[in-house]
Design brief:
The structure is a homooctamer. The first copy, chain A, is α/β, with parallel strands linked by helices. Chain A has a single domain, classed as 3-Layer(aba) Sandwich (Rossmann fold), CATH 3.40.50.1970. Helices cover about 45% and strands about 15% of the residues of chain A. Chain A contains six helices and five strands; from the N terminus they run βαβαβαβαβαα. A five-stranded parallel sheet of chain A has the order 2-1-3-4-5, sandwiched between helices. In chain A, helix 4 links the parallel strand 4 and strand 5. In chain A, helix 1 packs parallel to helix 5 and helix 2 packs across helix 3. Chain A is globular, with a radius of gyration of 17 Å. Chain A starts with a strand and ends in a 5-residue tail after the last helix. Chains in contact: A-B, A-C, A-D, A-H, B-C, B-D, B-E, C-E, C-F, D-G, D-H, E-F, E-G, F-G, F-H, G-H. At the E-G interface, helix 6 of E face helix 1 and strand 2 of G.
Chain lengths: ~160, ~160, ~160, ~160, ~160, ~160, ~160, ~160
């Protein structure tokens, strides 16, 4: 069963948001994804969020740009943890609007915000949340973290042997 | 009949938002006001916005602080013009979050944003909108603007006669 | 009769500002447009704004970049609602100067500010203002909003079926 | 058993961070808390994070101000979900340094960032994470969210009956 | 004859702007001062600026806060050098709006901008401009600069002898 | 005799700074130009500024990027009016560093700051300063301003006749 | 012999800058201190910096606010390492001007910048620099760092035993 | 023996960081370099920093982008002076996150921060630090500074003879 719902405000967010899909594939976590616009399809957003628990979702990842209301409004409608991805979209002021619109939620309705365009980390965070009750997934995440170390180890010789011309 | 609906995310926004009420009183425009939180009472917000036209409202003024989603979400649910007032509330980063969350709406769903804590201007703007089909109100607004000139004229002697010590 | 006046500080603002024209065409709202510079042609600006009501205008959309004084100065000269479009022009600091110069108007003289380069929303907002006394236009705006929903519905399969490689 | 570990960079962060404790008490979630400085006690930080899983923790909440490295470094050492609270401490530039130091983590090592001084939301988020495998806790969170609605309902009469003097 | 015209958008700017008066008194430069609001009294502003040369003014100092259009609009109407003072007024976002509204003038219409609340420097700059054709004034300015050196010399012992407790 | 000295921190500033030369040529004002680095050639800077009056200069235009100390330090050494041009050079953070380093001078030592990359306005401002004692130059500046109006008049038909496709 | 020279732009910087003195006292490093203004006493600044090596100084700590040119200009005149302390003085825009004026030095002339009002760290850094050739001082710094750990250990019980009311 | 350790968070930082290597080569200072990620290889970072003194290093240069914790964490583990280079990497918000994460260190643990992408200055600063006990190196740095003057002298004719077309 898909435990993670990935939503984004526009198809133009897909190149950023697919990083969440990619890392969830790597970690063996099922997900579903769709486009929901807080401002263009508010009723669909409300339905999606209200029914999320009964449909079996455990975590929602929501990405949006500009005045990014999608993550916060989904969090308003559900008790599930919601991860927000600020997207530096074409209609964004260097990403500041997306970040502040998602991060600065009022007391009572949290959104777990990741870095600008940080969909990969959103995926990892979703897996970490699920892993709080899934020790096999926790082990896969620990292996994944070991892999990050190896990647550094494998590339550092480029720097160690570098002679500036 | 009240033509203007004034809503705010929290009772703590009242000291700012009452400036809208005050100037609408001066201009002879009826209004109603209430507290609606986009994040704490999303269903009430949706109902309010969806039924606004049928209840006889012509303009909505919405004020909120922090990740201020109220103006934009109300605009998502209604075809009425929505005026957004960024409030520099306690949980705001110098007001930047409120401003950007309200101003940077995506194409298709405008919010008429006024200055930080600019509820007085929100009230005047609401009156100007109604005055596009109400010549008597237009005249009262023009008188109001004349009054602004007089106030400058009446106070400028303080500066003209000032001798720095 | 043209109800909306669209003005901009420079011909270089046209690629941004024509979005307002385009959406007003879609919504069936007449408009006129011209170039007026607050700083280069202040007298023409004053004449334009002072005579706007008698020439039959109901709403003015003004776009400008950098130290963008055009919207606020037009608002100083007329009781009509003025919509300001901050333009991220070549001589702008990432748009912050345009936004703050237009948004932060003093109490008494509002400008209805939309997003950076948000001329499309300025057009929609102008239509919404006119629709407060034109139920047929209101219906066209409501259809337009339905169209936004359909566009999301039509494109979401791209995301739903996406498999990251 | 305490599932949530709350750490902060300095005792001066306590007035902010105790909001996390308070809401976890309300939601019936056990926690432990201590002071760990990334820069003054890096070894203790490494030990705390490395042993967190074996000590039975499921979520870590870390709050810090200025160049706030504590949340990100703890996330470097553990596979548990880490929630970061940017604190607007005395040595912070309006909170921007705290926010960016916590939010902008590189791909591979997420921190779930909440609003500036948003410790209350950090506590709720921790509970939401634990509730992904604890339906009773989920119900308590849902009741808590209902309580937020009631609070709005109970206070809105202040605004509805307000007459600006 | 008064060579310098000092104007400000509001009497509330006087505590900042009187520093210009004070230093012009010290340097023996005549000035006149009044309140002119770009947004509330645009016609008076246009008259003031258009007639400035014929009334004998040589330099204009204009101070304003928020969306500060006064300096730039005066510069639009006159060929005299205009010095702009961004004022951190109550309705300003930490002064950023005042600074950018005054500084970022388009090519063709300069405003000589000084620091936030920097009216004292505006006065000195006005004197420096007049001194380009007044050698006695130039000498007074040079003496004034010598005085600045002396002030440092007279106070430095406080620091040189300081023993932190 | 050349009345205006144009200096810049690096030859890489020339594409920006030559706009000052160009407009001074148009206005018939003589100038000299050179490269002086506050940080690389501080002694040459001190000599240049200290001897500026005796060499016949009346105004200095100084452009620099990044931590732009050239305008302020030149102003420290001379009683002449100094115009500062913040340059958005390669080593600048979107120009903010250049702007703040030039604008925020302490009381006593003004720099007349123009817009980011606003060298053209620096040239016009220099001419305006000289024109306070040169009525023929003042007339040329007034003609120049008339030319700005004509340019708007000549291009506005592009916008007036525009039909968005 | 005093190895560290501490200078500041104004006596008003003393409450910030004395933290450098205090920590150098703790670490047993001799220093001298005085007031030097880059803009008011540029010649004294040039003399101070040019003669610093011959007077036996090894490190210079320079603190200033606003358009803070003192650290960078001192670095222009000497080959000694210069530590810059951005001071959030009265004439500063939340410290951003001080930070950027000191930090963003051009290639060739570094300033070792510490945090806003971070004079204590400037003192420690000066000691660390001297300790590169003084093993006894290095040991004192290491003891000092151990002391930081102890301070955390001694205060953490406040947090560990805290019960939010 | 190599006295300077150059580390960076990722091989992608090499194009920026090699400027430090290049200038150290020019100044005749030995260095070693490698990749260490605070977040991906925290244990290697701790080992590197803890053993730095015993391995003979005297100064560490650390460059990183985004939430740049490497310089500050290395400073936490060693008493050596640490120079931080904020890198405007792909995952950085115009460099603001890198700058603030490195600069705003808490009292007790300094990082000597240089300009954004300022690795060349980091190299010079490292040499200046070593030169506090190496008069020959000090002379080479003084020659280097003379060379900066010559470069200005050699290029200024481009500007002096420039005729804008």
């Amino acid at each position: 069963m898909n435990k993670v719902g990935i939503i984004m405000g526009s198809t133009s967010d897909l190149p950023v948001m697919e990083e969440a899909m990619r890392v969830l594939d790597v970690l063996g976590v099922g997900y579903e994804s769709t486009v929901i616009s807080a401002h263009r399809t508010p009723d669909i957003m409300a339905d999606y969020a209200t029914s999320a628990i009964s449909r079996g979702l455990s975590v929602i990842i929501a990405g949006a740009g500009g005045a990014a209301h999608l993550p916060g409004m989904v969090a308003a409608y559900t008790a599930l943890p919601v991860i927000g991805v600020p997207v530096k979209s074409r209609n964004s002021i260097d990403g500041w609007d997306s970040i502040l619109s998602i991060l600065q939620m009022p007391a009572g309705v949290p959104v777990a915000t990741v870095a600008l365009d940080g969909a990969r980390n959103a995926g990892i965070l979703a897996a970490q949340i699920l892993a709080t009750s899934d020790t096999q997934l926790l082990e896969r995440i620990q292996s994944f973290k070991e892999g990050l170390k190896l990647k550094v180890a494998n590339t550092k010789s480029t720097v160690e042997n570098h002679k500036p011309s």
